[in-house]
Design a protein that fits this description.
mainly alpha
């Protein structure tokens, strides 16, 4: 019987060791589960911050885009005004050049003076 007692005693130690290991494993799993929950909360906060930052960047990008479009319209309007002035000056210079030229002088003098002799009306 003594051999059985030794086997039983050994089995009891193994069972106790397994129980201790099971308890320790349960504790480790509980700690691990707690760490996972904590990391999930941290991830949620980080994802919210990323989303918030993304919204802010998009809002700023829209503001910059609107400002650039406004500036482009202003520059375009100024260029149109300058172009109108340039063409007006070009037209005026063309007319002045024509009037001052010998050909223009002949046409103007011909249209301003008449070839008909002056008539005098007597009474």
């Amino acid at each position: 019987m003594r051999g059985n007692d030794a086997v039983v005693e050994r089995l009891e130690r193994v069972i106790e060791a397994l129980q201790d290991n099971s308890i320790k494993m349960g504790q480790m799993l509980a700690v691990h589960d707690e760490k996972l929950d904590k990391q999930d909360r941290i991830d949620a906060v980080l994802f919210e911050k990323v989303e918030s930052l993304h919204r802010e960047v998009n809002r700023k990008a829209e503001e910059i885009k609107a400002g650039c479009e406004r500036d482009i319209r202003l520059v375009d309007n100024r260029l149109r005004v300058m172009e109108k002035k340039m063409w007006s000056i070009f037209g005026a210079l063309s007319i002045i050049s024509f009037v001052v030229s010998p050909v223009g002088q002949r046409i103007i003098s011909a249209s301003l003076t008449s070839d008909t002799p002056a008539t005098i009306i007597q009474r």
